[in-house]
User: Which sequence fits this backbone?
């Protein structure tokens, strides 16, 4: 966004025009919206207002509510989900240091801190984004500047770092290409009194320094981020899986099940992604009273039902070596059809397997496709929820 547009949006005229727009204006056809806005506004202003309407409706779709913030397309794309930001802010608030967000963007993280009453400052290098951030988080001091040379003393602050992972054209997965680059972020984090560094969910665990704590944060079905925590209040080397919005968690200081695999029992468990990302499969197995089926595969098993927010529980109906023909016959004979197909360490994509199995009627069952001791295996199962006496 150019600076003129940002200045207009935060001006009294821009704010009044935004406030006068219907809340659902973003659902209108964009051309029709601009045409109608042009009746009352010059072209550049009409286009700025239409853009905000469309971005707000996108934000409402992503976050479940209109964040009532001034947005840019890349800023919204990079903004931390409000529930994730709130959880981070609560932990920072417990440290009782002022917070400096060194890459504050439009202020998603910073606003969550300010809402908890933490003294907060932000640094942002993009001038238009900084203008909007000032409007979005009026309680914070937003400085136009460079994260690597913060005009603040990190030794007395809790910092937040959320490096950009995309330029105008594409998303990058190479931490050296983040902005600021990964090594700079790690240097800043290690120098701060405390802090959190947001990283992509796929971050290689090798990149987590021994002095940091690592969290794999999932919201609903989707992994959101890996967070590195450092400084005060941190247990170095600890790994934690977190599932929001419930806030269920598991840490690496919990006991683990034995490494040796054992044959499949009456129940099978599929851990949530945050558990596998945090490397806590055997810890979860211990909590469930379960065992591994294969040391390389995250499916777990027991002979008694167990439930945990960090895993899906299934009752095992059949276990068969993988063969499309035999699987089709089994499903047809039993009056089942493949309602859900999950896989771990299995080469065939669920959509491809569904296509190979063809259309079928009957009771929906789940197919859990995997490799056990080198053999391709399909577990036909029924999902159980909360209590095996009350099947879904
Ligand atoms: C991923 S976004 C931050 C999003 C923010 N956490 C939120 O929830 O809204 C990263 C921001 O850092 C800014 N940035 C990138 N490199 C920077 C640097 N070296 N110094 C300061 N800001 C930088 C980008 O312009 C971008 O707005």
Assistant:
């Amino acid at each position: 966004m150019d600076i003129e547009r940002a200045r207009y949006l935060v001006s009294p005229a821009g704010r009044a025009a935004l406030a006068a727009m219907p809340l659902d204006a973003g659902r209108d056809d964009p051309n029709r919206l601009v045409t109608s806005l042009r009746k009352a506004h010059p072209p550049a202003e009409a286009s700025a207002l239409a853009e905000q309407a469309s971005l707000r409706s996108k934000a409402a779709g992503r976050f479940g509510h209109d964040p009532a913030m001034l947005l840019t397309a890349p800023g919204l794309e990079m903004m931390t989900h409000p529930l994730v930001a709130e959880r981070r802010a609560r932990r920072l608030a417990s440290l009782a240091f002022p917070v400096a967000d060194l890459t504050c963007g439009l202020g998603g993280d910073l606003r969550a801190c300010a809402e908890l009453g933490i003294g907060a400052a932000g640094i942002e290098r993009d001038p238009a984004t900084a203008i909007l951030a000032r409007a979005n988080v009026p309680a914070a001091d937003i400085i136009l500047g460079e994260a690597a040379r913060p005009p603040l003393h990190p030794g007395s602050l809790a910092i937040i770092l959320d490096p950009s992972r995309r330029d105008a054209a594409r998303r990058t997965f190479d931490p050296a290409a983040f902005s600021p680059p990964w090594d700079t972020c790690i240097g800043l984090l290690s120098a701060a009194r405390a802090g959190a560094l947001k990283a992509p969910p796929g971050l290689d665990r090798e990149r987590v320094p021994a002095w940091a704590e690592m969290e794999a944060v999932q919201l609903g079905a989707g992994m959101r981020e890996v967070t590195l925590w450092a400084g005060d209040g941190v247990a170095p080397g600890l790994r934690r899986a977190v599932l929001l919005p419930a806030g269920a968690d598991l840490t690496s200081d919990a006991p683990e099940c034995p490494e040796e695999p054992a044959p499949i029992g009456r129940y099978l468990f599929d851990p949530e992604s945050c558990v596998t990302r945090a490397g806590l499969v055997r810890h979860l197995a211990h909590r469930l009273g379960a065992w591994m089926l294969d040391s390389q595969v995250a499916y777990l098993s027991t002979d008694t039902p167990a439930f945990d927010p960090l895993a899906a529980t299934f009752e095992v109906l059949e276990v068969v070596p993988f063969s499309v023909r035999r699987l089709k016959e089994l499903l047809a004979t039993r009056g089942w059809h493949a309602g859900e197909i999950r896989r771990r360490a299995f080469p065939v994509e669920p959509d491809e397997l569904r296509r190979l199995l063809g259309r079928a009627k009957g009771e929906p069952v789940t197919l859990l496709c995997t490799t056990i001791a080198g053999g391709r295996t399909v577990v036909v199962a029924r999902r159980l929820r909360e209590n095996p006496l009350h099947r879904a």
